[in-house]
Write a structure and sequence with these properties.
Distance between the termini: 28 Å
Radius of gyration: 14 Å
Strand order of the largest sheet: 1-4-3-2
CATH topology: 2,3-Dihydroxybiphenyl 1,2-Dioxygenase, domain 1
Order of helices and strands: EHEEEEHEEE
Number of helices: 2
Structural class: alpha/beta
CATH class: Alpha Beta
Shape: globular
Number of strands: 8
Largest sheet: 4 strands, mixed
CATH architecture: Roll
Helix content: 10-25%
Number of domains: 1
Length: about 130
């Protein structure tokens, strides 16, 4: 249903370094690199960074977030760890999420600009 998503970033070069490390855990790599946008994906760009030099920091209560599918629980954990190592912050440690469809396991991070990104998988037993 959804072909791709994009997020706005103030510093495209810094965001690219962050996302190269974090998205590698999900099997994504940089596939497009243009003057004001960079696209990551497996076969085609699915996750875009768009430079917005005049943007203000993301409001923590904005409610917007992007969820990326992970292969398994270990990948969700690696995503979270890579984000913290690269300068992001935790917005929900890896773990099962009660009240969700069976086996939903996820982690939430904030990138250095405040964007909320989630990695999730469905695990038979968490």
């Amino acid at each position: 249903m959804i072909d791709h998503v994009s997020i706005a970033v103030h510093d495209l070069a810094a965001a690219a370094r962050f996302y190269e490390a974090v998205l590698a855990t999900l099997g994504h790599k940089k596939l497009a690199d243009r003057a004001a946008t960079i696209g990551f994906g497996k076969k085609y760009p699915e996750f875009w960074l768009n430079e917005r030099r005049n943007m203000t920091p993301v409001d923590p209560d904005s409610g917007a977030h992007v969820c990326l599918r992970a292969r398994d629980v270990e990948t969700v954990q690696a995503f979270h760890a890579a984000a913290l190592k690269a300068g992001g912050t935790s917005d929900g440690a890896p773990g099962p999420r009660s009240g969700q469809i069976g086996g939903y396991y996820a982690a939430f991070i904030r990138d250095p600009e405040g964007n909320r990104i989630e990695a999730a998988t469905f695990a038979a037993a968490t």
